[in-house]
Structure formats: structure tokens, C-alpha cells
Design brief:
The complex is a heterodimer of chains A (245) and B (775). Chain A is an alpha/beta fold and 245 residues long. Chain A is built from eight helices and 14 strands. Chain A is 40% helix and 22% strand. The radius of gyration of chain A is 18 Å and the shape is globular. Chain B is α/β, with parallel strands linked by helices and 775 residues long. In chain B, helix 11 packs antiparallel against helix 12, helix 13 packs antiparallel against helix 14 and helix 19 packs across helix 20. The longest helix of chain B is centred in the middle third of the chain and has 67 residues. Classes of the chains: A alpha/beta (245), B alpha/beta (775).
């Protein structure tokens, strides 16, 4: 069996060990590194499918590593951080990380994030046979996408909730499509603004808030307690299509 | 017009600009300004002015312009120079000039000129002029008091130095002009400075003139006069003595010397009197000398008649020479006195500056400043500076007077006047227009940024303050003190900021280290317990142990988070990241966070009631989320399901409340519900429920940082009234209270506690005008 490989760069051996155990149980081939320098060498030699990176490493800032990797690799990166500083998370995400986890985190959380990161791979590499949840599989751009009671037919540009047609404005639709394309992944306000409105709007965070509100009003059962369009406070949004425990 | 056609191109365009302005002046303001390059009079009330004169001047200046090279008119920016020679019309001139300057958008300067002769004269007029100068300064002019012997030269030099293009001055009275047949100042200036426009401002009408005169008369001028009288009396006495002595001496010497040589002796007398007494006594001496020479030395003796007519020339020359010498020596003396005075002032200033530059504390500044003022004026001086709240701080008053003394006013010092001075930013007390009965003179310590305090002095000799020179000196001293104080003030601020930054950095380093060191083992513990769960097979007991392990680590994590959060919030200033936020979204996130952490331990139903068309509101989302999480966790801990969260925006305030349906707050807490928000306070002192009472304290700190309020109350009947009373928001309360009955399926409304907060904010309405097309 062709195992997917992951690299963990983390200076705490305990955390390193349990993360690798958890991943190994999920059939990952895991390599470990304790410093940025070792990690970089590992990445260059192994060409992994996933990187789990601690931001606070003894020999440097993880964000610089993310930026460096972005230029030559498209593998998903999940950032671990003890810091509760939202700006730090935003920086990591904007630099190119796919997701983040705050310590202390549970294994369930970690695995959910890992799965979400692999969905992106499925869209990028259709030959990949890795399927966790076939129903959420996002194929090409035109395949219909279903989550919960919501069905999005991108070819026909039709959105149905409980079999009933829902009307979205163009902006709302674009926002939804961008979220679907990055399903499971945190999108920062800046990223959403760039993708939906264009880079000139990158500083207008309230646009996203208003339109997310609209989307929730139209698609969620209870807009104030959303199931799918989740808020990562002060960081961004995530379209969640499975129960994250 | 002749003048316009012959001008160079640049000048022409500038003039055109002027003319454009002028036309608007004429139409809108009926202004006094007429045509540039002319001395003008246009006021309708002045019918008897001489048009010929105006015309003549205009032509004259025009022709001057043609032949002479303009000195400074080609400088990039033009400017107005206002000369105040006399108090009459000065204010009007300043106001008019301010208007012109604003309309022409040019810089403007206001000058007045001090003559050396004025040093001794009483400066009531001067004082008023200085007041007008201050007015000009407040209107945006740059003002200066020039010093010079002749008005014209000083003015002309100053105008050249500033490169000003328009001269504004007050026209002298019409009767003055006709009476003395003087050439007006304007004409002379126009002749001397052909490249400059001269504008004459109308003098105020005669009624104002009389009024001003009467006002002037009311001023306490009498004492000054007697003072002058006594001193001049001495001078005249000296003159007579000198005359007498020189006569005696001459009579003694007469047998040995020619009368022509004896004249020299008389001239010497004039010089002595001129040096010591001034102009008048010198003139008197000259006259007496001539008469006594005639009486005693020119025959026939003891009569004024002359035998030899050639003595007429001698007398004439002697008188003329005497007068001239007298004037010159008197002038010399005045200049010398003035120079000495200036020198001492400069020295005092130098001394003060040097001392102040070495001062490090406010106390030193006060001490040095006080000493300098006391030395310079022979007065008792006090300096009261403001504290960080902008109030006058009496504690810094020096130790020889107690605070009570001052408040009682034993020394005549009145703190209220000092306060007034601070508020009004102008001097008061002795020899000013305000509180002039006070024996103290108060001037504000005006530094570039704000008034730093008040300098008060009680001079032995009140006359001192009437002198412009002295006033200016005092002003300069005050400025120096103010600047020194400001330097120290900002030095302190910078130091504090520095310390704060360092402390902040240290704190952040420490907190992140602690949080890293706490969270890492907790993460490991938690995840290891979770890993254990997946190690099949496990029996029930093992499973339960592992579950409780996980729950306990969660509890410790929460506690650690709260402690760190509290430490972060309470340590110094909290930096809010305000942004336009949607409260619904934050409530949703908070609920999810609570559910997530709670691990569905207890099943709690959470309901939300959020006002429709809720606008975006400014707050820090992370922190407000924290508040909500803490409120909800609190409700879960102490209350019963369901929990209701309501949000409403009204009266520029966001109200959010979290209500549970438990027993409500304990009765023991009645009346002091706010206590709940104190650190380490809990409703029940000892209980099985985990927690140290930090959650609500954190919530309060965050809400306070948003300038908001937190409330905790029981959901009893009085709740509605209480809430209305507190917030004057009827709609919200009725609605949420009503909902309370409906949703809780007629459960007792008296049960349960409500924790709510309000934060003031502006609202950003959500508009959906964009995006008309639907899919």
C-alpha cells in the first residue's frame, strides 16, 4: 500500500511522539524533526504529503519556514501553536499554512484537521485514492457538492436546502464557492476578501462578516449557532462538513 | 491706470490677483482697503478727506515703482505687516488685517515700536498695545515689539527683513494731520519703500476716541504721576543747584579768565545736569545760564540789556548749544540706563536658562524660577504647576508657606485667580485688566503645548509692572520656566513609556513562557489519555479512570487559561483590536467553544434571541467571545438549562445578556451583585463546583476595557424596573423578559440569574443594496 508520508517538526518529544502515534494509526508514514534545520532537510529529502509544524521552535520562527516552503512545495501545512495570539495564527495562515491547532489539543481535533487538509489534495491530485469520506469528495470544479441538508450544484449554479431552491446573490455565491473549494480549512478574512472581492478589498474585514451573515441566514438552520459556516474568531471562517469532536 | 500699465508682468499678475480680491472686498465687506499701491481712504463717514493727497501719493508711489528696482516683491509669498503706533484704532487695524490676511491667504505680522524714551514713561498705552498684540497672535499673526530710535527706519528695516508686500497702518486723526501739517506716516513709508503697498486703516470714530480716553483716565495713573513728579523735582533742583554753583564759581574765576572761557564752565553745567537730570532740567540750566551770563558777565551788569550787540550771537549760540548738549547727554544717559537694564535682564535670563537646563526635577524648576523672578523684580514670587490631571498642584508650593496659608489668602495670594489665569490663559491681578485689586500679578506659564502652570509675583514696587520692558522680561522668564517644565514633563513621560514598554515585554515573555510550559504537559497528558482510550480492550473501570483523567486535565487547562488570561488583562494596558464585528457570529463562536470544551458533559440547551437587522458593532471579537464564554460557562455551572442569550443594539450601545433557569443568585448577595465580578469571589464560598471565581472578573475587565458595564441580577420581577432604570432601554427589557416567559414554557420568571453587559459603540448598518441579481 502506498502510504502517505508526514513530517512533524516539534521540539517537545512527548507531543511529537503522540502525534506520530496518532498518525501512524491512521496509516501515515511519519518522520520527526526537533528543529527547523532538521525539518527542512527532512522535507527536502522525503517530499512529504503533510507537514505538522510547531511555531515556537528553538532555532527560529516557523512562519519563515512556511514562507520558504511555499515557493517550491504545495503540501498542506498544519501549524501547532501554544500561543493564543490570533495575529500569529493569521500570519501563519496568510503565509500559506492550511490550518492551525492550539495547544492543548485533542487527537480527534488533530485527525479532523489532517483529514481536512487531505481533501484539498484530492482535488489537486485526482489520481489519489485516499478517501476518508467519499460523500464529501470534491472532484472537479463542476461536480455537485453536498453537505448536511445543503446541495450545491456548481454546474447549474443551483443551491438547494432541504430540496428547496435557495437564492444567493453573486457575492454570496462566490463566497460559498470559495469556502467549498477550501472545505474544512480555515480561510482568513484577508484570504476570503482576496478571493471573493479582489485584493483591493483586503482590509475590509466587515464585508466578509456581512456576507457570512447572509449565507448563514439562508443556509443554516439556526444562524446564531451555525453548524457549517463556523467562525474562527478574529482569524477567519471554516466550512465544516463533518462533526468535529 | 498709469501704475498698472507700466508694471512688469509678475507684478501685473499679482496686482490682478489683488484687484480680484478687492472687488470682492468692495462688494461684500465695504472694506477700507481700496486700491493697492495707494494710501486709501474709503470709509463713507469720512467725507472731508483730501482726494488730491491720495491721488498724489498714488502717482508718486507709482512713479517710484517704475524707476526703482523692487527689493523683495518677487519673493514667493507675500505678507502683510501691521504697524501699531498708537492704541487708537489698533484693535481695528489688527482685526481688519486678519481679515485681509485670511482672504489673501498670506502671512501677516504685527509690530509695535518701543522708543528709548518710553522706558521711563508709564506704559498704560503700551500695556493696551501689548494686549492688542496678544489678540493679533491669537488671530494668527506673528507679533514682535521692535526697538529703535526712529519709527521709520525701524519699520522700513523690519519690512525689508520680512519681505512683506503690504503695509497696514492706522491713519492718524484728520485734525492732527491738518493741525501740524505733517506728512502722514503712510506717505513717508510709500516714499521710502516704493515696492510696498501701503494701506491705511480708518481710525475709530471720535466717540470711540473719547471713550478710550476716558478709560485711560480711569486707570490708576495718579500714583505714577507723583512718582515722576518727585523724581523730576529732584532733577530740577539739581539743575538749579548746578546753575548756582557754576555762577558762584564763575564769579570767583571772573578776575582771572575771559568771559568767553567762562561760557565753557556754564556748558559743563548743562552737560552735568543733562547726564543726571534729563532733558527738561538740561534745557532749564541752559536758559538760566544764558540769563545769568548776561546778568553777571556782560555789561551793563545786572540788567538784561546789552551794550555790545555781538553778544546776541553768543547768547543764541550758547542757548542753542546748551539745549543741544542737554538733549544729547540726556539721551545718552537714557540709552545707557536702558543698556544697563537690558544687560541685567539678559544676564538674568542667561542665568535662568543655564540653571534651568541643568534642572532635573519639577521642584528644581520651581526653585530656580522663583529665585530668578524674585531677583529680577525684587518681588515675592510663587510658581504653581499643574499636575498630571491638569489641576494646579498646591503641594509643590515651597515650604515657607503652608498650603492653608495660601487658601486663607494671608499673603494676598489667591488660588482662585491662579485657576482663572490657567483657564483663561491670560495674565491677571496687579496692573492688568482683571482682578486688579489683587496685590499679586499672575501670568500663565505658556509652553508650546499647553499652559504648564501659573507664575505669581507680588512686587514691592507696583510701578515696575507698568513698564513694557519689565513685562516683556517677566514674560520671557515665564516662558523659559514653562519650557523647562515641559521638558521635564516630557522627559518623565518618555521615561514612563520606556518603563512601560519594558515591563510589557518582560511580562509577555514571561507569560508566553509560562503558557508554553503549562500547556505543553497538559496537551501531552490529555492526548495520552485519549490514546489510552483507543488501546482496546479496556474494561469499564479503566475507561472511567481515563475519562476522569481527561476531564481533570481539561479543568486544569481551563484554570490555567483563566489565570494566564487574567494576568494578561490585569497587567497594564490592554490593547483592544477594535473592528466592525457581527455579534451574532461571536455568540455562535462562543457557544461552539463552550460545547467543544464541555465535551457534552451535560446537555445544555442554548437559545439565542438576536435583534433583527443587528448592525455591525465595534469591539474586540476575541475578548468579547471570552466574556460570552465565561458567562455561558458560569450559567452552565450554577444554573439550569435552557440558557438564553439575547442581544440588542440601541441608543448607541450593544446589550448582550445571558440568562439561565437555575436558582438565581444567592440571597446573601442581594444588593451587592457587582461583588461577583471581583477577582476570586464566588457566590458560594466553598462548593463542589470547580473554579476560583476568575471567569466573571475576566469578563468585567474586558467589558470595562470597552468602556462598558456588566450587570448581574436575579430574574425576579424587579428585574424589569431595575434594568430600565439602569439603562433607560424599555424595548429591550420588555422583549427579552417576554421571551423569557414564552420560551421557558411558563416556568417561574423569578428563577434564574441574568448576567449581561453593555458596550457603547457606533453602528455600521448592514446594507444589501449591492448584489441585485440572484442565482
Amino acid at each position: 500500500m502506498n502510504l502517505l508520508s508526514a513530517i512533524i517538526i516539534e521540539d517537545e518529544p512527548q507531543i511529537r511522539r503522540f502525534v506520530s502515534q496518532a498518525l501512524q494509526q491512521e496509516n501515515w508514514n511519519v518522520f520527526e524533526a526537533a528543529t527547523l534545520k532538521d525539518g527542512l532537510i527532512e522535507i527536502a529529502t522525503r517530499q512529504p504529503d503533510l507537514l505538522i509544524l510547531d511555531l515556537g521552535l528553538p532555532d527560529g520562527d516557523g512562519i519563515t519556514l512556511i514562507k520558504e516552503i511555499q515557493s517550491w512545495s504545495r503540501m498542506p501545512i498544519i501549524v501547532l501553536s501554544a500561543r493564543h495570539d490570533e495575529q500569529e495564527k493569521i500570519k501563519a495562515l496568510d503565509a500559506g499554512a492550511n490550518d492551525y491547532l492550539c495547544k492543548p489539543f485533542g487527537i480527534g481535533e488533530l485527525l479532523a484537521r489532517v483529514r481536512a487538509s487531505q481533501r484539498k489534495i484530492n482535488t489537486t491530485y485526482p489520481e489519489n485514492t485516499y478517501h476518508q469520506h467519499p460523500s464529501y469528495h470534491i472532484g472537479g470544479e463542476e461536480t455537485p457538492f453536498t453537505f448536511g441538508n445543503i446541495h450545491v450544484d456548481r454546474a447549474a449554479r443551483m443551491i438547494k436546502k432541504d430540496q428547496k431552491l435557495v437564492h444567493l446573490t453573486p457575492t454570496e455565491y462566490r463566497l460559498l464557492i470559495v469556502l467549498i473549494a477550501n472545505v474544512g480549512r480555515v480561510m482568513t478574512h484577508r484570504q476570503l476578501l482576496k478571493e471573493v472581492w479582489g485584493s483591493a478589498y483586503a482590509e475590509r474585514g466587515h464585508y466578509v462578516r456581512i456576507y457570512m451573515g447572509h449565507l448563514r441566514q439562508k443556509l443554516e438552520d439556526d444562524p446564531s449557532q451555525p453548524k457549517y459556516f463556523l467562525t474562527e474568531t478574529a482569524v477567519g471562517y471554516r466550512l465544516a462538513v463533518e462533526d468535529e469532536s | 491706470m498709469e501704475a498698472r500699465s507700466s508694471l512688469s508682468e509678475i507684478t501685473q499678475s499679482e496686482l490682478d490677483a489683488y484687484f480680484t480680491y478687492n472687488s470682492s472686498f468692495n462688494s461684500s465687506l465695504n472694506s477700507d482697503l481700496h486700491t493697492p499701491n495707494q494710501t486709501v481712504d474709503q470709509h463713507p463717514s469720512h467725507s472731508n478727506h483730501d482726494p488730491q493727497l491720495d491721488q498724489q501719493t498714488g502717482r508718486q508711489t507709482a512713479s517710484n515703482k517704475r524707476c526703482s528696482e523692487p527689493l523683495s516683491i518677487h519673493t514667493a509669498s507675500s505678507s502683510l505687516l501691521v504697524y501699531l503706533g498708537d492704541i487708537h484704532g489698533a484693535e481695528r487695524a489688527v482685526r481688519t488685517a486678519a481679515r485681509y490676511a485670511a482672504q489673501l491667504n498670506v502671512n501677516w505680522y504685527v509690530v509695535t515700536i518701543d522708543h528709548p524714551d518710553d522706558v521711563e514713561t508709564v506704559g498704560i498705552n503700551r500695556h493696551d498695545i501689548l494686549a492688542v498684540l496678544r489678540l493679533a497672535e491669537s488671530l494668527g499673526a506673528q507679533t514682535s515689539v521692535l526697538f529703535g530710535r526712529t519709527v521709520f527706519e525701524t519699520l522700513i528695516n523690519h519690512a525689508r527683513k520680512l519681505g512683506c508686500t503690504t503695509f497696514v497702518l492706522v491713519r492718524p486723526y484728520q485734525e492732527q494731520l491738518t493741525r501740524f501739517k505733517k506728512i502722514s506716516v503712510a506717505q513717508r513709508l510709500a516714499t521710502a519703500l516704493p515696492e510696498i503697498d501701503v494701506v491705511e486703516i480708518l481710525n475709530p470714530s471720535t466717540t470711540t476716541k473719547i471713550k478710550t480716553k476716558r478709560q485711560t483716565a480711569q486707570k490708576p495713573i495718579r500714583s505714577t504721576k507723583t512718582f515722576n513728579f518727585s523724581s523730576s523735582f529732584k532733577a530740577y533742583l539739581l539743575a538749579l543747584t548746578v546753575c548756582f554753583l557754576s555762577l558762584i564759581l564763575s564769579l570767583q574765576l571772573q578776575p582771572f579768565f575771559e568771559s568767553t572761557s567762562i561760557i565753557m564752565l556754564f556748558l559743563l553745567g548743562v552737560i552735568i545736569v543733562g547726564l543726571n537730570g534729563g532733558k527738561g532740567p538740561a534745557a532749564l540750566t541752559a536758559l538760566i545760564n544764558v540769563i545769568s551770563f548776561d546778568l553777571f558777565f556782560v555789561g551793563p551788569r545786572l540788567t538784561l540789556s546789552l551794550l555790545d550787540l555781538q553778544y546776541v550771537l553768543t547768547f543764541a549760540v550758547m542757548l542753542g548749544l546748551g539745549l543741544l548738549i542737554g538733549q544729547l547727554t540726556a539721551g545718552l544717559r537714557r540709552t545707557a540706563v536702558l543698556a544697563a537694564q537690558r544687560e541685567s535682564q539678559t544676564y538674568a535670563l542667561f542665568e535662568l536658562t543655564r540653571n534651568l537646563s541643568a534642572s532635573l526635577t519639577t521642584e528644581q524648576v520651581i526653585k530656580i524660577g522663583k529665585y530668578a523672578v524674585e531677583q529680577a523684580f525684587g518681588a515675592k514670587a510663587e510658581i504653581i504647576l499643574i499636575d498630571e490631571f491638569g489641576e494646579l498642584n498646591c503641594d509643590l508650593i515651597t515650604e515657607d508657606h503652608t498650603k492653608a496659608d495660601y487658601l486663607m489668602g494671608e499673603s494676598g495670594f489667591d488660588l482662585r485667580i491662579a485657576k482663572w489665569v490657567l483657564d483663561q490663559k491670560q495674565s491677571a491681578g496687579l496692573s492688568t485688566s482683571f482682578f486688579r485689586r489683587s496685590s499679586w500679578h499672575y501670568i500663565p506659564l505658556d509652553s508650546p503645548t499647553e499652559i504648564r502652570g501659573v507664575l505669581a509675583l507680588q512686587p514691592e514696587n507696583a510701578q515696575l509692572l507698568h513698564q513694557t520692558e519689565q513685562m516683556r522680561h517677566l514674560q520671557t522668564l515665564a516662558n523659559q520656566i514653562a519650557i523647562a517644565e515641559e521638558r521635564i514633563h516630557y522627559g518623565k513621560l518618555a521615561q514612563q513609556a520606556n518603563i512601560q514598554v519594558e515591563a510589557q515585554e518582560l511580562r509577555n515573555t514571561m507569560l508566553s513562557a509560562i503558557s508554553h510550559d503549562l500547556r505543553t504537559p497538559l496537551t501531552v497528558l490529555n492526548s495520552m489519555a485519549q490514546t489510552c482510550l483507543s488501546l482496546e480492550p479496556l474494561n469499564e473501570r479503566q475507561k472511567q479512570h481515563i475519562f476522569s483523567m481527561i476531564a481533570q486535565t481539561d479543568a486544569i487547562t481551563k484554570l490555567a487559561n483563566n489565570l494566564l488570561e487574567m494576568a494578561r488583562l490585569q497587567s497594564g494596558t490592554l490593547n483592544l483590536r477594535l473592528d466592525w464585528q457581527c455579534i451574532e457570529e461571536v455568540i455562535g463562536a462562543a457557544i461552539r467553544l463552550v460545547n467543544h470544551v464541555n465535551n457534552q458533559e451535560h446537555s445544555f440547551e442554548i437559545k439565542t434571541d438576536i435583534q433583527k437587522d443587528m448592525p455591525l458593532v465595534q469591539f474586540d471579537a476575541v475578548l468579547i467571545e471570552r466574556v460570552l464564554v465565561n458567562f455561558i460557562e458560569n450559567a452552565i455551572k450554577y444554573g439550569r438549562s435552557p440558557i438564553e442569550i439575547a442581544a440588542k443594539f440601541t441608543h448607541d450601545k450593544l446589550f448582550v445578556s445571558v440568562r439561565d433557569h437555575g436558582e438565581g443568585l444567592p440571597l446573601t448577595l442581594k444588593g451587592r451583585e457587582q461583588k461577583l465580578f471581583d477577582t476570586f469571589t464566588r457566590g458560594e464560598t466553598e462548593s463542589a463546583t470547580v473554579g476560583v471565581g476568575l471567569g466573571l472578573a475576566i469578563a468585567k475587565t474586558i467589558v470595562m476595557a470597552h468602556q462598558g458595564e456588566v450587570f448581574a441580577e436575579n430574574c425576579a420581577e424587579s428585574y424589569v424596573e431595575n434594568y430600565v432604570e439602569k439603562n433607560h432601554v424599555e424595548n429591550y427589557v420588555e422583549k427579552s423578559a417576554g421571551k423569557g416567559i414564552d420560551r421557558s414554557t411558563n416556568r417561574n420568571i423569578g428563577k434564574g440569574a441574568i448576567f449581561s453587559f453593555s458596550i457603547p459603540s457606533q453602528a455600521l448598518p448592514i446594507s444589501t443594496t449591492e448584489d441585485a441579481e440572484y442565482y
